[in-house]
Amino acid sequence: MTGKSRVTAFENRSEYRVEFLTSCRASDDLTGRPSSMAALGGVGAEPLRYLDFPIRDPMRTVMLHRGGISAAVSTTERYTAHSGSSPQSAEKGREEL
Question: Does 30 lie in the same domain as 57?
Fold first, then answer.
């Protein structure tokens, strides 16, 4: 990374938000520093620990925008199991209390 911050999410006027995430297997020093994703045209992806489980065996879908955008997303059951059990969600829950 060259020191400039990278965009990792987009939100439209209707507050529909798309975030770009990737698994983090490196040291904790890289957590919170977006990874460059060449396939996304320079957009960054936020590295998260323990993301391997929900992104394994993704399902194909289409985002409804103009002619449609093909995307691979986590299955509902994998996302649900991960979002309730990951250390990041537990930490976020404590912050909201």
Answer: no
Same domain, 19 and 44: yes
Rounded to a whole number, what is the largest CA-CA distance in the chain?
42
Q: How many H helices and E strands in the chain?
A: 3, 7
> What's the domain range around 23?
1-49
16 and 56, same domain (yes or no) = no
Number of domains in the chain: 2
Question: Is 45 in the same domain as 56?
Answer: no
- The per-residue pLDDT for range 27-54, each reduced to its tens digit, is 666 666 888 888 777 788 888 877 777 7
Give phi and psi for 80, each to the nearest 5.
-65, -45
Task: Choose between 21 and 87: higher pLDDT.
Answer: 21
| pLDDT top residue among 2 and 27 | 27
- 37-56 CB burial, b ≥16 within 10 A, e <16: eeeeeebbbbbbeebeebbe
